Protein: Cold-shock protein
Amino acid sequence: MSTTTSIVTEEQKPEVEQIEIWKCKATECKAWVRKEFVTEALPTCPLCKTQMVRSYKHVPVAAKKGNKKFLVGKKRF
Structure:
């Protein structure tokens, strides 16, 4: 019986970016929110209502799709 191992190379790793977030201070809660979606100076957790702290998170880069045209009436933008 042969075993095969999966070797991850640099080409297979997804590209990630570091973003600023607010994360819940409670250790049992895993909630976090991107900084740009927070409107309060000191936000509270949307799930458990505990205070949140600033932090950073590495997330995969989303592919930006371009050349979309929006129909408004009969004009294309």
In short: The two ends are 60 Å apart (CA to CA). The chain is about 0% helix and 30% strand. Residues 14-58 form one domain. The beta strands are 16-24, 32-34, 52-60, 71-72, 75-76.
